[in-house]
Design goal:
Radius of gyration: 26 Å
Oligomer: single chain
Low-confidence stretches: 42-51
Strand order of the largest sheet: 6-5-7-8-4-9-10-11-12
Largest sheet: 9 strands, mixed
Number of strands: 21
CATH topology of the largest domain: Rossmann fold
Number of domains: 3
Structural class: alpha/beta
Distance between the termini: 87 Å
Mean pLDDT: 87
CATH class of the largest domain: Alpha Beta
Strand content: 15-25%
């Protein structure tokens, strides 16, 4: 009897090796290689690979007939915003997030809205039985005859169900639980995840069927499985939020049919996830008045402008030579850089101070347009002087202390004017660019960090 051939596959990147290695030579992770049965090149494999998109000859792009651009609405406005306007027929969408963050709840609510609109949808779960799904749907009051459920983990049993049900949308929850009989490795392995995703990719493209794939998150915050999984799908969405915070943020990391990085905001309630139409008002609702260390900044998330509160606390350090630098919602390295600029360019003695920075509402901001507001919040707490609560601060700070311009200033100013702010500290706009601020918003342009502080602390 012939011995089955095995190989060792990295569970992080998918690298294959003929023998076990402690360190993956591709991604350099330790103890990630697991033994899997080598896939035979048999008839079943060839047949499965042949079920691909229809072959076409080489043609000019001007002669290609445009595909239908009609999107399928998800039934949730914030979700449609992140997707770029709705579900594209034949698209493959990967949704990732921490356990219990609300991934399945979000998709379940979307399916219910579509089912209520008359579309037949299919929810395939590899983790829950139909009874468990029904209990969760009943708790959320999301029940419909067009909402079809199927508990199965074998791909060869799932595909025939598509022919019988002919759903308008398919959901696989979660990708790590499904397997194909063509591979002998366990469900959740790199080979199984990649093969199942590729087979589903072929089916959804051939049928014009939008497919949701829900994935787990590793301890490093990445979607579990090979990195090639993110390359196969059309859209990658991350669902994030703090455990103690009732707000959830949905971000588009990759989207072939829309803008990235787009963002949607949801609020977790007893009856499920509720879309937040005006996130700026929610983030600023509990802002303390006339409090040192509090500054309002205008950030941009995809096509949406948001006003958020930056909070800073500076206090004398009890550790000699080792002050603490903690940041929540912003890059800690960026905070350390701005502290060094404040010390060098403005002479603020922050070497022996503990500095804590937080973005209120659990939001994570990565763009440099909040640099000026972040530096102002630290200086406000250090000097124990409150900044005008009617002022919004915008600008990137360079190493020499200059304030640099940022993109899409008009959208930021419109959001500030809509919420009733009367002052805006922003970078000096040169050339032929002319800003048209909304009525009641006074623009104060600055070129340096020192000039900005003179206006903020006058």
């Amino acid at each position: 009897m012939a011995r089955n051939k095995t190989e060792y596959v990295c569970q992080s990147c998918g690298h294959r090796a003929p023998k076990w290695l402690g360190k993956c030579p591709e991604c350099h992770d330790w103890n990630t290689l697991a033994e899997e049965a080598a896939r035979p090149a048999g008839p079943a494999t060839k047949n499965s690979r042949s079920r691909s998109l229809p072959a076409t000859g080489v043609v000019s792009i001007t002669d290609v007939t445009p595909a239908s651009s009609n999107r399928v609405t998800s039934g949730i406005g914030e979700l449609d915003r992140v997707l770029g306007g709705g579900l594209v027929p034949g698209s493959l969408i990967l949704l990732g997030g921490d356990p219990g963050i609300g991934k399945s709840t979000l998709v379940l609510q979307s399916l219910f809205e579509m089912a209520r609109a008359g579309m037949r949808v299919l929810y395939v779960s590899g983790e829950e039985s139909p009874e468990q799904i029904q209990i969760r749907a009943s708790r959320l009051n999301r029940l419909s005859e067009n909402f079809r459920v199927f508990s199965e983990i074998c791909l060869e049993d799932i595909l025939p169900a598509l022919d019988r049900e002919r759903p308008a949308v398919l959901v696989l929850d979660s990708i790590q639980t499904f397997h194909t009989i063509e591979l002998q490795s366990a469900p959740g392995s790199v080979g199984q995840v990649r093969e199942v995703a590729f087979r589903i990719f072929q089916e959804c493209k051939g049928r014009g069927l939008p497919v949701w794939i829900i994935g787990h998150i590793t301890k490093d915050g990445a979607i579990a499985g090979p990195k090639s999984l993110e390359h196969i799908v059309d859209t990658v969405l991350y669902f994030e939020g703090e455990r103690g915070n009732h707000f959830r943020i949905l971000r588009a990391i990759k989207n072939r049919f829309g803008a990235t990085p787009e963002m949607g905001v949801f609020e977790m309630r007893d009856d499920g996830l509720s879309p937040v139409a005006n996130p700026s008002e929610i983030f600023l609702a509990e802002r303390p008045a006339e409090s040192p260390g509090s500054v309002i900044v205008a950030t941009l998330e995809g096509t949406r402008s948001l006003l958020v509160e930056v909070q800073a606390l500076v206090s004398s350090s009890s550790s000699v030579g080792m002050p603490r630098r903690m940041a929540s919602g912003v890059d800690p390295n960026r905070l350390s850089l701005l502290v060094a600029i404040l010390e060098k360019r403005l002479g603020l003695h922050l070497q022996g101070e503990d500095i804590f920075v937080n973005i209120a509402g659990g939001l994570k901001v990565t763009e440099p347009a909040i640099d000026l507001g972040l530096a102002a919040a630290v200086a406000s707490s250090f000097r124990n002087r409150a900044i005008d609560p009617s002022a919004v601060v915008i600008g990137e700070v360079g190493l020499t202390g200059e304030v640099r311009s940022v993109g899409q200033l008009e959208a930021r100013l419109q959001e500030a004017g809509r919420l009733g702010f009367t002052r805006c500290i922003l970078p000096r706009v040169g050339g032929s660019t002319k800003l048209k601020p909304p009525e009641g918003l006074r623009l104060e342009q600055v070129a340096t960090l020192e000039h900005a502080f003179d206006l903020l602390f006058e």
